[in-house]
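ugh finaly. both done.
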Amino acid sequence: MKKILSHSLIYILFMALSTEETLAQSEINYVVSFPEAQAHYVDVEMTLKGIKSSYIDVRMPVWAPGSYLVREFAKNVEGFSAKTSSNGTLSSNKANKNTWRISGTKNKDIRINYRIYAFELSVRTSFVDAAHAFLSTSGLFMYPEGQIKSPSTVTVKPYGNWKKISTGLEPVKGKANTFYAPDYDILYDSPFEIGNHDTFEFDAAGVKHEVAMYGGGNYDKPRLAADMTKIIEAETSIFDENPNKRYVFIVHNTLAGGGGLEHLNSTVLGAIRQGYNTEDSYKSFLGLVAHEYFHLWNVKRLRPQALGPFDYSNENYTTNLWIAEGFTAYYDNLMLRRTDIYSPEKYIELLTGDINTVENQPGNRVQPVSEASVDAWIKYYRPNENSRNSTISYYDKGAMIGLIMDLEILGATKGAKRLDDVLKAMYDEYYKKQKRGYTDAEFKAMAEKIAGKSLDEIYNKYINGTEPISFNSYLGYAGLYLVNDNAGKSIPTLGIATAVRDGKLIITSVQRGTAAWADGLNVNDELIALDDYRMTGAADPKGVTDIARIVSGKKVGEKLKATISRDGIIQNINVTLTQNPGARYRIEVDKNTTAEQMEIREKWLSL
């Protein structure tokens, strides 16, 4: 059948062909410099060669992969201008919030200049001062629209006496301080640390690793290298390969550091500068190393279908962050157990804390973890005073799903298989063989194949539903059980959290279903008195506050008069104390553990 194309369709095809011609011949290069580093600026010069179209749009990403929030990086751009290679001025205008349109570009090479204000030191945002520069590339480099797959080079002109550059990008031979990115997905996945930071190297799992330490600290390099090697090799053994030849850890050591962000062959970590010689702080840092390095496989390669190729101008939604982040959160401490950095007892203690965190959050009964994954863009990174009542973390709840799925598979296969096998099979099938992301249904099907049984209960009740997890059903496979020390006790609660602000005791949160919730105490109320006793929020040497002392002297069902100031108006509100809904869990060993249960426990905990 012969088809006649409309004028509109012919135009669209013409434009597509025109764009393809432009992409095939365009050459993209960047130069970054720091003429005013002390004022937190980085200057970017972008050159485009071989443009065939009459205009070109360049865009700044609005978010950083791995951190699911639209951060509007274009807000930091100043002084945008465009010129020809012969220094002729080109017309440019702001087409929308993150797009600049440059006209008169046909058959010209052009040079674009702009500045970025960089003064937010985090793992996902750029920071520049006289001491160093950390460049989070998705908030730094604009890309020509339609050219995400185009290669580019980045040349760094260090400030003052800066001598070191650490990045996952490969250097260009014969060009000083110049690096090559095969496409923008790689460029935006390769941060830079530039300055005079301390560096050390070690080999692990056949891969050369560089550690770039900014900010000083009391770290022990040989100890760190040895412990990081254990973690890297334990994680590599799950997937039977480490896909990198080189990997870079960028570590920002600050007064109260924390957090991390994964990349394809690098990561950025925040650490407490003087925390390396304290066991809990040191091992917490190693847990962060384990978490971000595990992302090398889980999310950077084995990924939900929505997480790549990326749309850098809009949200990228998935229901599976509970796998991408939650399972990674399950494995971080588990890896420290497998490497004997944590004892079995310490691991169980930390696991108990995680269970308490999830089960004592009211939002766990409101928001399914699959929904929490989708809502990351609007809720997780923007918590408010009611978030605990209405949301659950896909990290925390996802880790619990990882726990029960691991134990379910171990139990169903009598210890022959576990969650490791699911991740390895998914990695082989979807990353290596099909070279794409997976769907929710595909992950469930593979997990059920490995388990040899349906996982509908886990999915229907705990992933897509909000029922309390029956932990004993899963811990029982390993001869363990969960005990609630608060069960059967009458414990009154008011249900508020407070903080002292400008000398006033302010209610900062109200817990769903408690006395304060039911009887109308509000966030931002100033709490003046309870039963006519002045409240200050002060605590005794044991940490018991004056509020807790008043409440603990009452019984569930008794009334309490709360005197508050709301918007400058003094009010008395009668509150009927309710039962504290919080649980206090601990994990115990079943005295009647069977040989099969003991075998599963040994495999799970690497005993």
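ok and the 2nd:
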Amino acid sequence: MQKTDFLVVGSGIAGLTYALKVAQYFPDKKVLVMTKAAADETNTKYAQGGVAVVNDLENDSFEKHIEDTLIAGDGLCNRNVVEIVVKEGPDRVRELIEWGARFDKEKDGDYKLGKEGGHSEFRIIHHKDITGREMERALLDAASKQKNIEIIKHCFVIDVITQHHLGYLVTKATPDIECYGVYVLNSKTNQVEKILAKITLVATGGNGQVYRTTTNPSIATGDGVAMVYRAKGRIENMEFIQFHPTALYEPGMKGQAFLITEAVRGDGGILRNKDNEAFMERYDARKDLAPRDIVARAIDSEMKRTGTEHVWLDCRHFSKEKFTEHFPNIYEKCLSLGIDITKNMIPVAPAAHYSCGGIKTDEWGRSSIKNLYACGECSSTGLHGANRLASNSLLEAMVFAHRCYTDATNNVISVSLNEDIPDWNAKGTSEPKEMILITQSLKELQQVMSDYVGIVRNDVRLQRAMRRLDLLWEETEQLYQSTSLSLPLLEIRNLISVGYLIVKGATFRKESRGLHYNTDYPSKSHLVQNIVL
């Protein structure tokens, strides 16, 4: 058993920003950061495009950024939260720069600003095409210098500890559900340990691995959303799964796909179909720089219409010098596959990318469970609504990490550790005899979600998905109850829960809005609402 003042689950930009702030504010208090893989293996690391932030007040404004975000969110953004993130964003970016993050600059010293889909102005600051990796590097470096931060790697958080573990009946109607810490599977010892904490922050990232092809790394299995849902916390808007329009297409592609950042289209890249037609002008007046939901559906439509598995991104008109300066990582990846961007178009197809819904929070990052905060992609703050505006996610993570820190530092003084938490009970379980059962369940889940709950949906597909998920859940719960725990088993359990929440939200939403498009309800309803589960 371990005890800590502040527990952080996840080591991406949300978790590390928060950890640094509380550690600096309380140098005498312990801050424990837990991650299930290496410290830098996070969704943050794979973010390419950059951070959307108003930096040029001569040509840009908070009002423009707010309006772009609201338009992309298609009526479901919380305007107050949008204003908070946009207006507080510049201060948070300055803090990150003070911690050592480096962003590309012009010769005169001003930051280079990119433009992406849905943005009315150039406002994306970046570090080449590996912005997330640079931000993660800076944060880990700063955290390593903070003596009261401990990062524990290769530990999987199983469940949030609440009154349920003390023998009380806890339902969604239970008032004042409290978080006392977490149970953790130590991957090295294969033992389940308990960690007691006064304040817990869930910053576990996304859930892209619920789909067959995703830009997310293998660790993105929706762990935070699933564990908070099991603890009877509120989850909302899970039906809004953003598919990035342009993942690099490779024959038979599945698992983690290589991302071709939207910034390439911001710099002038053109989407073309197999007939060499620049087709986006038929779908939206903003053409290639329309919001992601529109571009992804347009590509999906072109692929189905022409019977192809991908479309093309044309960058042949770029100068090689310009492309390699801004997108060196993309250039090298394409070249490794025999694609010379000065001569060849890049084959691209949509892939699951970002979850706009998640653990419901208020404007201070507080979940519906006391002493439990959520931040980053696993949360639903109200910023993104029905569709996230490009490069708003890193900004949201920094702003809400600061807000979680502000509120938590005020609350931690009045919280006491609960010492009565029982140890994990593994009696009656045995070693699993066939791991192939878990592997096969994962394949089935990803196929069901990709075939029935993708970019375009309908009621029949959603019903089929739910029936198959019910069976997968029953089979997996039997394994969970009867066998000793393992990382693959815990991940498939979480992914099935996340799949259920996506399908449930999609079933309840009897309209098409933002990232959720149902051919049985092709228009928006007059009733704008969030689906809370």
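summary for the 2nd one i guess: Residues 2-239+356-414 form a domain with the FAD/NAD(P)-binding domain fold (CATH 3.50.50.60).
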